[in-house]
Amino acid sequence: MPSLRALECFVAVLDHGSLAVAARHLHLSQPALSHHLASLERELGTTLFDRHPRGVTPTPAATAIDPDARAVVEGSRRLVRMGRSAAAGRTGRLRIGTAESMTAPLVAPLARRWFSDRPQVTLEVSEASSADALVAALEAGELDVAVCPRPTSWTGAIEVIGAEEVLVVCCHSHAFAGRATVAFEELHDQRFVHYAAENGLAGWIDALALRRGVALDPVTRVRHAASAAGLATAGLGVALVPRTALPEDPASIVIPLDPPLSRDVVALVRSGHDPLATAFARDLVARGLPRSGIDDDAPSSAREDGAS
Asked: Which residues form the HTH lysR-type domain (predicted)?
């Protein structure tokens, strides 16, 4: 099999018509270039150049292999360019998994910026209803980075984007309306808009209620946090909704818990050797969590860990 260096020497001699000039162009000594050409000629079993005092001329065999030799050399150069560009995070494919409530407020704004700043990078976004489902996809090699609440278990790289407050949502006619805060314990026996089992919020809220001795009264279960907020606003009951999932609905009554309740929002990176995933996670951290329209002066939240 001809070496790439031998093919580079062959193409350079074709282009310059001189062994000495080709050697200078490739930063080689002339004996080294001649050695590579001789190796290629032995591999092909034919002479490629006729030597004469004023330079060299290609033989019919050289003319025949010229297009393929150039294609191999250019393909190799393109491979190096692409590899270096990918290593620098300027090109490639990035598969992003996101919790459903975090696509629009967290991932979409950064994806829009990446489309502008990194046009050679292809972004593929998929959603899941729980952090643990995203971890499973990462471990299966189906995703490169995931944006979600902190999962039950993860041994790879993790970047904390911020702490997201979880708030009470109800309608204008509810007894909580007009309150400055609500204690979690006051949710006891309240009609509650809960989450479907596949949404990680369901288990997280149930575990919290169990620890605090609160019996919830689910009137319905939904998969999406935005749906829970909408049903609570419509008067079906109260809901606990993460800040990033709050709808821009003036009819919604949104009340902080006292003490405040929050969960970490993180970026999980499958491989520390993936420059695109690492860069995307770091850009998420730099942007931080978006703020909703409710009181920005609310007190800092005490986190309750759990997959949600």
From this structure: 2-59
